[in-house]
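Hi R.,

Here's the chain you asked about this morning:
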Amino acid sequence: INKESAHAYFMIYDRAEDAVTDDFSSSSFFQSLNGSWKFSFSENGKDKPEGFQNPELNDRNWATIPVPSNWELEGFGIPMYTNVKYLFPKTPPTIECDNPVGIYRKHFRLPEYWNERETILHFNSISGAAWVYVNGQKVGLSKVAKSPAEFDLTKYLKKGENVLVVAVQRWHDGSYLEDQDFWRISGIEQDVYLYSLPKTTIWDFFLQATLDDTYTDGMFKADVDLRVFGEKRQSGSVLVEVFDKENKNPVFTAVKKFSSKDKQLYFNGIISRARKWSAETPELYQVLLHLKDATGNTILVTGAKVGFRSIEVKDAQLLVNGIPIMVRGVNLHIHNERTGHVPTKETMLQDITLMKQNNINAVRTSH
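And the predicted structure, written out as tokens:
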């Protein structure tokens, strides 16, 4: 309910240098909500605090919980492991049993320069059905785990202090679709943050980097989706750049103007003798997208890295850049024996290193 449509995972920046580094925390339009939250836990879901969503509620006596985390690993409830057996009576689509609920509360303030812009709330992953409230008003509902959920908070916000409340119910109708062999643990289990967008903005982009039939030249495409918040539509332009290995000289540059009616822009070009991406030589190019106003002033910069490669099947053989490969794959759950479903960069690198050491070249991401 009221969730934003899915789009590419990116942050916007003032400067191209920051977009290349792509450290979200360096953006003046990013605010992390990770950290200590107030928390109230109901084992059966029936004794939730009355008026839990109200900003005036006194929550001083509530417990605190780190976000991100799984509440079962923080002393609330019991983590459970099962494969094909449901942990609740099978009465689809309803859940007819004691159903734990965790209430999260967080106070925050926004920078003044975010005024007159759009403020988006982003959850990387919530395990359970999550109702979101801001300043006592119901914003929306998300029921997908392991995928982002976003809500536009702009009309619910006020100057000064704001109160965000998230009520997470452990089991819901979507739980009937998530039955497999993994640990059942709950809560706000990955990063939570706010980010600010201009009223006319890049909302989504799709980058394609393939090779020609001789596996020599790179074939580059970029589809850029624009979005306007409110009724005031602006015109401007989008500059797309693809940079070489040192990020100094662009090997592709294109500019397209847009009017108030345009929603999508399409770019394509050829990169001569592109460095090919493969598992053995993971060559990457930096792509930068610049949104400019009608006078040429930069509104935002964002981007991503791409690798030029060709993946095809010929005569029942999988080829990468024309070379036959054998897939040696594993399943991988987002899981850590100490932090649960909360990943860290260090543990992800450890997993990748271990897989490469054992000649694994493919991963099926199972939850």
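The radius of gyration is 23 Å.

Let me know if you need anything else.
M.
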